[in-house]
Amino acid sequence: xxxxxxxxxxxxxxxxxxxxxxxxxxxxxxxxxxxxxxxxxxxxxxxxxxxxxxxxxxxxxxxxxxxxxxxxxxxxxxxxxxxxxxxxxxxxxxxxxxxxxxxxxxxxxxxxxxxxxxxxxxxxxxxxxxxxxxxxxxxxxxxxxxxxxxxxxxxxxxxxxxxxxxxxxxxxxxxxxxxxxxxxxxxxxxxxxxxxxxxxxxxxxxxxxxxxxxxxxxxxxxxxxxxxxxxxxxxxxxxxxxxxxxxxxxxxxxxxxxxxxxxxxxxxxxxxxxxx
Length: 276
Known about the structure:
Blueprint: H1 3-6, E1 10-11, E2 14-18, E3 20-21, E4 26-27, E5 33-39, E6 46-50, E7 53-55, H2 66-71, H3 74-93, H4 99-110, E8 116-121, H5 127-136, E9 141-147, H6 150-162, E10 167-171, E11 184-190, H7 199-209, E12 210-221, H8 227-237, H9 246-255, E13 259-266, E14 269-275
Parallel strand pairs: 7-10, 8-9, 8-11, 9-10, 11-12
Antiparallel strand pairs: 1-2, 3-5, 4-5, 5-6, 6-7, 12-14, 13-14
Helix pairs in contact: 3-6, 4-5
């Protein structure tokens, strides 16, 4: 975690209370805070920074579904971008949809070159976070990748460090984002809305933290249009993955106070631009 992130992080229990460094910290040569503690000035709770990741949940916060539990397994974190993610959208969309197509679409919607705080919510291995950091270039701002699974975050940090990207990683929930209201210039989410469980609460948190001129770029999977597709989604739903119809997804976003600005659909794969 870098000092730039500290300027934005708040206590998950008190989202208007900026977190403070407490006690001694250890930094790397590029200034990353590798170990240390964060403290909430309101409730006094201390949060650990370990191996560069700020843990705002603690060891007792465990996943509630099978798919979330799978993300806690180190082999899943190791193999996610090495084996599954590069091919996932091609398989789901039924047409070529690799990174060379997906990431320019996502970055074009998010426009991180405008600067400001960019947050990749439920970031997994940090694919979108790295794309945002590369696109932000010299613009004033910082990128934070946020997820509930520590193994995913540790792998995400390793990928970012290997590319020489200055990205901070934080363990927190999408339903309790550790940022003050209206402070995030760019929010992204790549397919994780299907796995979060409390979708409406997560959407309200996106709306709460999004800046008045901010952008939320989201990739989501919707209900299948074929018999085999719906059968497969039925099996996956047992593990805790939801596949809402597109109309329902848009309605829930609207009810959360998010406005749909643009949307592209490739079978079950949907990319959306949302604003306040």
